[in-house]
Amino acid sequence: MTYCLGIKLNAGLVLASDTRTNAGVDYVSTYEKMNAFGIEGERQFILLNAGNLATTQAVVNRIRRDLDDPDAPVSLHKVRYPFEAADYVGALSFEMQRRHRDAVKETGINVEANFLLAGQIRGQEHCLFQIYPQGNYIASSRETPFLQIGESKYGKPILDRVVQPEMSLEDAGRSALVSLDSTMRSNISVSIPFDLILYRKDSLRIDRRIRYEEDTPYYLSLKKEWNEGLRRAFRALPRFDWE
Amino acid sequence: MTYCLGIKLNAGLVLASDTRTNAGVDYVSTYEKMNAFGIEGERQFILLNAGNLATTQAVVNRIRRDLDDPDAPVSLHKVRYPFEAADYVGALSFEMQRRHRDAVKETGINVEANFLLAGQIRGQEHCLFQIYPQGNYIASSRETPFLQIGESKYGKPILDRVVQPEMSLEDAGRSALVSLDSTMRSNISVSIPFDLILYRKDSLRIDRRIRYEEDTPYYLSLKKEWNEGLRRAFRALPRFDWE
After folding, report:
1. pTM of the predicted model, to two decimals?
2. Which residue, of A16, B83, B130, B236, is most buried by count of CB atoms within 10 Å of its CB?
3. In what order do the strands lie in the sheet with B12-17?
4. What are phi and psi of A39, to 5 degrees?
């Protein structure tokens, strides 16, 4: 499994992902699930993926080939609107899955993939999309500022409580790390290293890209403080009337 | 959906459940999912259910009929060991599901049900079981003191952090309410009223049984304090090194 999260703020975009993949419990490995494609000062796109690793790698390969090919009819550097980028990734994903349709029918293997696509084209608003295995997609909104793919339930309650479009990039980054950490504690299919990107609106470059390992000092201190803060909050809860 | 939770402590048992059921989004209703069957001073059993409502009601009806019938070969008042009670409920559940096997095949409706069974027979240890739709079951353990059925993921992180067999019944009761409240905030298929039972080991009676409505003062203050405590913990998290 996997857990990826995108948050669209007034101030910009926050993207976070874990790196664990597994094909059964006896084949667990580490893969980056976050890819950035951009031209500084012109446009930035960040793609996060969950689901079948062969499908998601094939999609990323095709995106890269189209970027290299000046004759490609569409690419992330050619689209004029962000929604066209979501269209393009959705179509690639669906095509890659369909290729293995017969093999899938015979073996029951799931080749579906889900994506988050975030970014900005110069002169336009920054944006965040969730792309479904069928190739269609939805955008975030003011009322739904974050979107998740993969193992999303464990880490949702804290986001529901704190995430708001008015947050700073840094606060949203902290909420994303806490959400990933909570998920990892409760489910072994999600695991560190974590990748985090903070994108400041209109900067048109990746402002911060950080990898957190098990022993990264900031992650260690965040994890410890969060655990202690939760325990303090728990101990401070009101007593039952008979206590 | 539903969310039910059982915790086995050295001090006794804590059981909690929501009351929401739904058959599609246009048929949402409230049903108690917690049933107690016992003889004060002799034995107590508490059954929590998730899954198909027709199946779980049929199981509870059969349990009650067997309790009324002096000639029933097995009943919750006749079993000699707690595991025999789990065997019995598992067999009833599987039988009720199998009855509708053909209809299920034709319509694709899921008639599966999951149960938590907790209790104590005089002179024996108190116990907690999770009973699968297939009729087999597992018990809690020292390392796994809580078991969940239904919409279990949202409310698991807080339990993973605080639940230990050495907790008081009251602390475990608070953790259960917090876990239910977090789940309800993130998923509309789980909702208040909540039912809570605290069973003190060897008391052989239901020591506390409380229903929490939206406006129950204790629930209101617990919810408020927990929300504020979490926000305080979030605000106290360490800053990134560039802040």
Report:
1. 0.93
2. A16
3. B146-150, B3-8, B12-17, B194-200, B208-212
4. -130, 115
Distances (CA, A) of B35 to B38, B64, B65, B89: 10, 10, 14, 13
* pLDDT at residue number B12: 98
Place A30 in a pLDDT band, splitting at 50, 70 and 90: confident
CA angle A181-A185-A191, nearest 5°?
65
Res B203 pLDDT > 90: yes
> What secondary structure does DSSP assign to A142-173, as a single string?
SS--EEEEES-STTHHHHHHH--TTS-HHHHH
What is the phi/psi pair of residue A195, to 5°? -115, 140
Nearest-by-CA chain B residue for A154: B154
Residues of A numbered 216-235 whose beta carbons fall under 8 angstroms of chain B's beta carbons: which are they? 218, 221-222, 225-234
Taking each helix axis from N to C terminus, what angle separates B82-99 and B53-68, rounded to the nearest 10 degrees? Answer: 130
Do residues B213 and B192 make contact, with C-beta atoms less than 8 angstroms apart?
yes
Q: What is the pLDDT of residues A197-220, one digit of tens each?
A: 999 999 999 999 999 999 999 999
